[in-house]
Amino acid sequence: MKRRDLVRNLVGLVAGSPLLPAEVPDELMGPVNVHEFEEVAKRKMHKLAYDFIAGGVEDEYTLRANREAYGKFALRPRVMTDVSNVSLEVDLLGMKLASPILIAPTGGKNLVIESADEKVAAAALAFKTLICSATGVQKILEKGEPLLWWSNTIGAATKAQARGYARRIEDGGGRAITLTVDNQYQSNRDRNNRNRFDYGYMQTGVPKEGEPKPVPKSPALPAMWQPHTPQMTWEQISWLKEGAKIPVIVKGIIHPEDAALAVKHGADAIVVSNHGGRQRAGVMGPLEALPGGVDAVGENGHFVLDGGLRRGTDILKAMALGAKAVLVGRAPLWGLGAFGQPGVERVLWMLNAELKLAMALAGMAKPGDITRTLVTRKLG
Predict the structure, then answer these.
(1) pLDDT tens for residues 222-250?
(2) Are 305 and 317 in contact (CB under 8 A)?
Protein backbone atom coordinates (compact mmCIF):
# COMPACT_ATOMS: atom_id res chain seq x y z
CA MET A 1 0.00 0.00 0.00
CA LYS A 2 1.35 3.43 -0.94
CA ARG A 3 1.84 6.01 1.82
CA ARG A 4 -0.74 8.22 0.07
CA ASP A 5 -3.38 5.48 0.32
CA LEU A 6 -2.44 4.76 3.91
CA VAL A 7 -2.94 8.38 4.90
CA ARG A 8 -6.31 8.48 3.17
CA ASN A 9 -7.35 5.43 5.19
CA LEU A 10 -6.46 7.36 8.30
CA VAL A 11 -8.45 10.46 7.34
CA GLY A 12 -11.21 9.35 9.70
CA LEU A 13 -8.95 10.33 12.58
CA VAL A 14 -9.38 13.97 11.57
CA ALA A 15 -12.89 13.81 10.17
CA GLY A 16 -14.56 17.18 10.14
CA SER A 17 -11.36 19.11 9.51
CA PRO A 18 -10.27 20.00 5.96
CA LEU A 19 -9.13 16.87 4.19
CA LEU A 20 -6.29 16.01 1.87
CA PRO A 21 -6.41 17.34 -1.71
CA ALA A 22 -8.23 15.02 -4.09
CA GLU A 23 -5.00 13.96 -5.77
CA VAL A 24 -1.88 14.00 -3.63
CA PRO A 25 1.44 13.34 -5.38
CA ASP A 26 3.53 10.79 -3.52
CA GLU A 27 6.36 13.30 -3.02
CA LEU A 28 3.99 15.50 -0.99
CA MET A 29 3.66 12.68 1.52
CA GLY A 30 7.38 12.71 2.29
CA PRO A 31 7.61 15.53 4.88
CA VAL A 32 5.84 14.54 8.09
CA ASN A 33 5.82 18.00 9.69
CA VAL A 34 6.38 21.67 8.87
CA HIS A 35 10.06 21.47 9.84
CA GLU A 36 10.63 18.85 7.14
CA PHE A 37 8.83 20.98 4.56
CA GLU A 38 11.38 23.68 5.36
CA GLU A 39 14.22 21.25 4.69
CA VAL A 40 12.80 20.43 1.25
CA ALA A 41 12.19 24.10 0.46
CA LYS A 42 15.73 25.03 1.49
CA ARG A 43 17.17 22.52 -0.98
CA LYS A 44 15.10 23.95 -3.82
CA MET A 45 15.32 27.68 -3.11
CA HIS A 46 18.08 30.15 -3.96
CA LYS A 47 20.23 30.90 -0.91
CA LEU A 48 19.31 34.61 -1.00
CA ALA A 49 15.62 33.73 -1.07
CA TYR A 50 15.86 31.14 1.71
CA ASP A 51 17.87 33.45 3.98
CA PHE A 52 15.40 36.28 3.41
CA ILE A 53 12.45 34.11 4.47
CA ALA A 54 14.15 32.14 7.25
CA GLY A 55 16.28 34.90 8.74
CA GLY A 56 15.63 37.38 11.50
CA VAL A 57 16.92 40.68 12.79
CA GLU A 58 20.57 41.00 13.89
CA ASP A 59 21.71 38.04 16.06
CA GLU A 60 18.28 36.41 15.62
CA TYR A 61 17.58 36.35 19.35
CA THR A 62 13.99 37.41 18.67
CA LEU A 63 13.62 34.72 16.01
CA ARG A 64 14.75 32.03 18.44
CA ALA A 65 12.60 33.47 21.23
CA ASN A 66 9.50 32.90 19.11
CA ARG A 67 10.07 29.15 18.93
CA GLU A 68 11.55 28.75 22.41
CA ALA A 69 8.48 30.31 24.00
CA TYR A 70 6.38 27.23 23.21
CA GLY A 71 8.77 25.08 25.22
CA LYS A 72 8.25 27.29 28.28
CA PHE A 73 4.59 26.27 28.60
CA ALA A 74 3.34 22.73 29.24
CA LEU A 75 -0.11 21.34 28.53
CA ARG A 76 -2.26 19.90 31.34
CA PRO A 77 -4.69 17.62 29.47
CA ARG A 78 -8.14 16.77 30.78
CA VAL A 79 -9.54 13.24 30.66
CA MET A 80 -12.93 11.52 30.71
CA THR A 81 -14.48 14.06 28.35
CA ASP A 82 -16.32 13.07 25.17
CA VAL A 83 -14.05 13.93 22.24
CA SER A 84 -15.59 11.57 19.70
CA ASN A 85 -16.42 14.70 17.69
CA VAL A 86 -13.96 17.59 17.66
CA SER A 87 -14.71 20.90 15.94
CA LEU A 88 -12.19 23.59 15.00
CA GLU A 89 -14.86 26.19 14.16
CA VAL A 90 -14.38 29.65 15.67
CA ASP A 91 -16.26 32.94 15.61
CA LEU A 92 -14.02 35.93 14.99
CA LEU A 93 -15.19 39.49 14.38
CA GLY A 94 -18.59 38.32 13.19
CA MET A 95 -17.14 35.63 10.92
CA LYS A 96 -17.67 31.91 11.39
CA LEU A 97 -14.41 30.26 10.39
CA ALA A 98 -13.83 26.56 9.79
CA SER A 99 -10.52 26.78 11.63
CA PRO A 100 -8.58 29.22 13.83
CA ILE A 101 -5.54 28.83 11.53
CA LEU A 102 -5.16 31.85 9.22
CA ILE A 103 -2.47 32.77 6.68
CA ALA A 104 -0.28 35.67 7.79
CA PRO A 105 0.89 38.57 5.61
CA THR A 106 4.42 37.89 4.38
CA GLY A 107 6.52 40.10 2.16
CA GLY A 108 8.74 38.72 -0.55
CA LYS A 109 6.70 35.65 -1.53
CA ASN A 110 7.90 36.06 -5.11
CA LEU A 111 11.37 35.16 -3.88
CA VAL A 112 10.06 31.65 -3.28
CA ILE A 113 8.32 30.98 -6.59
CA GLU A 114 6.93 32.97 -9.51
CA SER A 115 3.40 34.38 -8.98
CA ALA A 116 3.65 33.28 -5.36
CA ASP A 117 1.06 35.73 -4.00
CA GLU A 118 -1.57 34.36 -6.36
CA LYS A 119 -0.65 30.74 -5.60
CA VAL A 120 -0.92 31.23 -1.84
CA ALA A 121 -4.27 33.00 -2.26
CA ALA A 122 -5.49 30.15 -4.47
CA ALA A 123 -4.46 27.67 -1.78
CA ALA A 124 -6.35 29.71 0.81
CA LEU A 125 -9.46 29.62 -1.39
CA ALA A 126 -9.15 25.88 -2.00
CA PHE A 127 -8.70 25.22 1.69
CA LYS A 128 -11.36 27.74 2.83
CA THR A 129 -8.73 29.49 4.92
CA LEU A 130 -8.75 33.20 5.70
CA ILE A 131 -5.74 35.00 4.24
CA CYS A 132 -4.27 38.30 5.35
CA SER A 133 -2.36 39.88 2.47
CA ALA A 134 -1.76 43.14 0.66
CA THR A 135 -1.48 41.45 -2.74
CA GLY A 136 -2.43 38.39 -4.75
CA VAL A 137 -6.16 38.28 -4.01
CA GLN A 138 -7.59 40.68 -6.58
CA LYS A 139 -8.10 38.27 -9.49
CA ILE A 140 -9.82 35.71 -7.27
CA LEU A 141 -12.16 38.29 -5.78
CA GLU A 142 -12.96 39.76 -9.21
CA LYS A 143 -14.21 36.31 -10.25
CA GLY A 144 -16.66 36.37 -7.35
CA GLU A 145 -14.95 33.52 -5.52
CA PRO A 146 -15.69 33.26 -1.76
CA LEU A 147 -12.18 34.09 -0.60
CA LEU A 148 -11.96 35.17 3.03
CA TRP A 149 -9.54 38.11 3.01
CA TRP A 150 -8.14 40.68 5.39
CA SER A 151 -6.01 43.40 3.85
CA ASN A 152 -2.66 44.40 5.31
CA THR A 153 -1.14 47.88 5.42
CA ILE A 154 1.75 49.57 7.21
CA GLY A 155 -0.22 52.80 7.40
CA ALA A 156 -0.82 55.96 5.39
CA ALA A 157 0.87 59.35 5.55
CA THR A 158 -2.37 61.34 5.70
CA LYS A 159 -5.93 60.99 6.92
CA ALA A 160 -7.27 61.31 3.38
CA GLN A 161 -5.02 58.51 2.16
CA ALA A 162 -6.04 56.23 5.03
CA ARG A 163 -9.75 56.85 4.51
CA GLY A 164 -9.44 56.27 0.77
CA TYR A 165 -7.52 53.05 1.32
CA ALA A 166 -10.15 51.76 3.76
CA ARG A 167 -12.96 52.47 1.28
CA ARG A 168 -11.13 50.64 -1.49
CA ILE A 169 -10.56 47.58 0.70
CA GLU A 170 -14.19 47.41 1.79
CA ASP A 171 -15.44 47.92 -1.79
CA GLY A 172 -12.99 45.25 -2.97
CA GLY A 173 -14.35 42.56 -0.66
CA GLY A 174 -12.01 42.85 2.32
CA ARG A 175 -13.48 41.56 5.57
CA ALA A 176 -11.10 43.58 7.78
CA ILE A 177 -8.08 45.86 7.62
CA THR A 178 -4.91 44.75 9.37
CA LEU A 179 -2.68 47.65 10.37
CA THR A 180 0.92 46.54 10.93
CA VAL A 181 2.45 48.94 13.44
CA ASP A 182 5.99 47.61 14.00
CA ASN A 183 7.52 48.51 10.65
CA GLN A 184 8.61 52.11 11.21
CA TYR A 185 12.03 51.52 9.63
CA GLN A 186 13.80 48.81 7.69
CA SER A 187 15.31 46.47 10.25
CA ASN A 188 18.94 45.39 10.48
CA ARG A 189 19.05 41.83 9.12
CA ASP A 190 22.55 40.36 9.12
CA ARG A 191 21.79 37.58 6.64
CA ASN A 192 20.54 40.04 4.05
CA ASN A 193 23.43 42.41 4.68
CA ARG A 194 25.96 39.59 4.36
CA ASN A 195 24.32 38.32 1.16
CA ARG A 196 24.25 41.85 -0.32
CA PHE A 197 20.55 41.29 -0.84
CA ASP A 198 18.56 43.79 -2.91
CA TYR A 199 15.13 44.48 -1.42
CA GLY A 200 13.98 45.07 -4.99
CA TYR A 201 14.07 41.28 -5.38
CA MET A 202 10.96 41.11 -3.18
CA GLN A 203 8.91 42.08 -6.23
CA THR A 204 10.96 40.50 -9.02
CA GLY A 205 12.50 37.45 -7.40
CA VAL A 206 16.21 36.63 -7.37
CA PRO A 207 17.76 36.76 -10.89
CA LYS A 208 18.22 33.29 -12.32
CA GLU A 209 21.68 31.93 -12.92
CA GLY A 210 23.11 33.31 -16.14
CA GLU A 211 20.78 36.31 -16.18
CA PRO A 212 22.35 39.77 -15.85
CA LYS A 213 21.84 41.30 -12.43
CA PRO A 214 19.78 44.49 -12.55
CA VAL A 215 21.00 47.71 -10.98
CA PRO A 216 20.19 47.38 -7.25
CA LYS A 217 17.05 49.26 -6.24
CA SER A 218 17.45 49.01 -2.48
CA PRO A 219 20.64 47.18 -1.47
CA ALA A 220 20.83 45.83 2.08
CA LEU A 221 23.41 47.60 4.21
CA PRO A 222 24.34 47.20 7.89
CA ALA A 223 22.13 49.42 10.09
CA MET A 224 20.69 51.13 7.02
CA TRP A 225 18.42 54.09 7.80
CA GLN A 226 15.36 53.54 5.64
CA PRO A 227 12.09 54.99 6.95
CA HIS A 228 8.78 53.26 6.27
CA THR A 229 6.12 54.82 8.51
CA PRO A 230 7.93 56.55 11.40
CA GLN A 231 5.23 59.21 11.76
CA MET A 232 2.36 56.82 12.50
CA THR A 233 0.42 57.30 15.75
CA TRP A 234 -2.75 55.86 17.28
CA GLU A 235 -4.93 58.25 15.26
CA GLN A 236 -4.28 56.00 12.23
CA ILE A 237 -6.92 53.62 13.61
CA SER A 238 -9.64 56.27 13.61
CA TRP A 239 -8.60 57.41 10.12
CA LEU A 240 -9.19 53.89 8.78
CA LYS A 241 -12.45 53.44 10.66
CA GLU A 242 -13.79 56.70 9.24
CA GLY A 243 -13.25 55.36 5.74
CA ALA A 244 -14.99 51.99 6.10
CA LYS A 245 -17.25 49.97 8.36
CA ILE A 246 -15.16 46.82 8.42
CA PRO A 247 -13.05 45.95 11.50
CA VAL A 248 -9.57 47.36 12.01
CA ILE A 249 -7.02 44.93 13.46
CA VAL A 250 -3.74 46.16 14.93
CA LYS A 251 -0.80 43.84 14.30
CA GLY A 252 2.58 44.10 16.02
CA ILE A 253 1.63 44.51 19.69
CA ILE A 254 3.90 43.11 22.41
CA HIS A 255 3.54 45.47 25.41
CA PRO A 256 0.31 45.06 27.42
CA GLU A 257 -0.14 48.82 27.71
CA ASP A 258 -0.11 49.07 23.92
CA ALA A 259 -2.79 46.38 23.75
CA ALA A 260 -5.00 48.47 26.04
CA LEU A 261 -4.25 51.64 24.07
CA ALA A 262 -5.07 49.96 20.78
CA VAL A 263 -8.52 48.98 22.04
CA LYS A 264 -9.01 52.42 23.60
CA HIS A 265 -8.38 54.00 20.20
CA GLY A 266 -10.86 51.73 18.43
CA ALA A 267 -9.03 48.57 17.40
CA ASP A 268 -11.45 45.68 16.94
CA ALA A 269 -8.77 43.03 17.44
CA ILE A 270 -5.09 42.74 18.26
CA VAL A 271 -2.42 40.57 16.70
CA VAL A 272 0.29 39.87 19.25
CA SER A 273 3.37 39.72 17.04
CA ASN A 274 7.01 40.73 16.74
CA HIS A 275 7.02 40.53 12.93
CA GLY A 276 8.26 36.96 12.91
CA GLY A 277 11.48 37.95 14.64
CA ARG A 278 12.44 40.00 11.60
CA GLN A 279 11.98 43.55 12.80
CA ARG A 280 13.02 44.32 16.38
CA ALA A 281 16.06 42.82 18.08
CA GLY A 282 15.99 41.46 21.64
CA VAL A 283 12.19 41.18 21.83
CA MET A 284 10.24 38.53 23.74
CA GLY A 285 8.28 35.85 21.92
CA PRO A 286 4.61 36.64 21.22
CA LEU A 287 3.38 33.60 23.15
CA GLU A 288 4.98 34.98 26.31
CA ALA A 289 3.52 38.43 25.63
CA LEU A 290 0.00 37.16 24.95
CA PRO A 291 -1.27 36.66 28.54
CA GLY A 292 -0.26 40.20 29.54
CA GLY A 293 -2.16 41.71 26.64
CA VAL A 294 -5.24 39.60 27.32
CA ASP A 295 -5.23 40.61 30.98
CA ALA A 296 -4.75 44.30 30.13
CA VAL A 297 -7.69 44.37 27.73
CA GLY A 298 -10.07 42.04 29.53
CA GLU A 299 -12.28 39.18 28.48
CA ASN A 300 -13.99 41.14 25.72
CA GLY A 301 -10.79 41.53 23.71
CA HIS A 302 -10.15 39.70 20.46
CA PHE A 303 -6.60 38.40 20.18
CA VAL A 304 -4.74 36.67 17.37
CA LEU A 305 -1.23 35.26 17.81
CA ASP A 306 1.48 35.43 15.17
CA GLY A 307 4.98 34.02 15.46
CA GLY A 308 6.87 30.72 15.63
CA LEU A 309 3.93 28.38 15.09
CA ARG A 310 5.00 25.03 13.64
CA ARG A 311 2.88 22.34 15.36
CA GLY A 312 -0.71 21.79 16.38
CA THR A 313 0.31 21.84 20.03
CA ASP A 314 1.80 25.32 19.51
CA ILE A 315 -1.59 26.52 18.31
CA LEU A 316 -3.38 24.83 21.21
CA LYS A 317 -1.10 26.61 23.71
CA ALA A 318 -1.76 29.94 22.03
CA MET A 319 -5.50 29.40 22.24
CA ALA A 320 -5.23 28.40 25.90
CA LEU A 321 -3.42 31.66 26.64
CA GLY A 322 -6.15 33.74 25.04
CA ALA A 323 -5.80 33.72 21.25
CA LYS A 324 -9.01 33.23 19.30
CA ALA A 325 -7.00 32.47 16.17
CA VAL A 326 -3.42 32.30 14.91
CA LEU A 327 -1.57 33.57 11.86
CA VAL A 328 0.99 31.29 10.21
CA GLY A 329 3.56 32.94 7.96
CA ARG A 330 6.68 30.90 7.25
CA ALA A 331 4.91 27.51 7.40
CA PRO A 332 2.87 28.05 4.20
CA LEU A 333 5.96 29.50 2.50
CA TRP A 334 7.91 26.31 3.23
CA GLY A 335 5.10 24.35 1.62
CA LEU A 336 5.21 26.76 -1.32
CA GLY A 337 8.96 26.48 -1.71
CA ALA A 338 8.83 22.70 -1.47
CA PHE A 339 5.91 21.87 -3.79
CA GLY A 340 4.16 25.04 -4.94
CA GLN A 341 0.46 25.55 -4.28
CA PRO A 342 -0.14 21.86 -3.38
CA GLY A 343 2.56 22.25 -0.73
CA VAL A 344 0.72 25.19 0.83
CA GLU A 345 -2.49 23.17 0.95
CA ARG A 346 -0.67 20.18 2.44
CA VAL A 347 0.88 22.32 5.18
CA LEU A 348 -2.53 23.79 6.02
CA TRP A 349 -4.03 20.29 6.16
CA MET A 350 -1.19 19.11 8.39
CA LEU A 351 -1.52 21.97 10.90
CA ASN A 352 -5.30 21.55 11.08
CA ALA A 353 -4.99 17.80 11.54
CA GLU A 354 -2.35 18.22 14.25
CA LEU A 355 -4.46 20.80 16.08
CA LYS A 356 -7.55 18.61 15.97
CA LEU A 357 -5.64 15.64 17.35
CA ALA A 358 -3.96 17.79 20.01
CA MET A 359 -7.36 19.08 21.13
CA ALA A 360 -8.79 15.58 21.27
CA LEU A 361 -5.88 14.27 23.34
CA ALA A 362 -6.21 17.27 25.67
CA GLY A 363 -9.91 16.57 26.21
CA MET A 364 -11.11 19.63 24.28
CA ALA A 365 -14.04 19.06 21.90
CA LYS A 366 -14.21 22.64 20.62
CA PRO A 367 -12.27 25.90 20.92
CA GLY A 368 -14.75 27.21 23.48
CA ASP A 369 -13.66 24.46 25.89
CA ILE A 370 -10.06 25.71 25.90
CA THR A 371 -9.09 27.90 28.87
CA ARG A 372 -5.88 29.08 30.48
CA THR A 373 -6.06 26.20 32.97
CA LEU A 374 -4.99 23.91 30.12
CA VAL A 375 -1.41 25.26 30.28
CA THR A 376 1.12 25.95 32.97
CA ARG A 377 4.39 27.81 32.82
CA LYS A 378 7.38 25.56 33.37
CA LEU A 379 9.67 26.38 36.27
CA GLY A 380 13.28 27.28 35.62
Answers:
(1) 998 989 999 999 999 999 999 999 999 99
(2) no
The domain that holds 300 is classified in CATH as: 3.20.20.70
Q: How far apart are CA 10 and CA 14, in angstroms?
A: 8
Query: CA–CA separation, 110 vs 134, rounded Å?
Result: 13
126-165 pLDDT, tens digit each: 999 999 999 889 999 999 999 999 999 999 999 999 999 9
DSSP one-letter code for 219: B
| Complete DSSP assignment for 142-190 | HTT----EEEEE---SSHHHHHHHHHHHHHTT-SEEEEE-S-SB----H
Amino acid at site 37:
F
Catalytic residues: 275
Backbone φ and ψ of 354, nearest 5°? -65, -40
State residue 26's pLDDT score: 82
Q: Are strands 303-306 and 375-377 parallel, antiparallel or unpaired?
A: unpaired
List Cα–Cα distances, 67 to 32, 184, 308, in angstroms. 19, 24, 5
Total domains, the chain: 1
Q: What is the mean pLDDT of the chain?
A: 92
Question: pTM score, two decimals?
Answer: 0.92
**Type of residue found at 291:** P
Domain that holds residue 118: 3-377
- Note whether 97 and 376 are within 8 A (CB): no
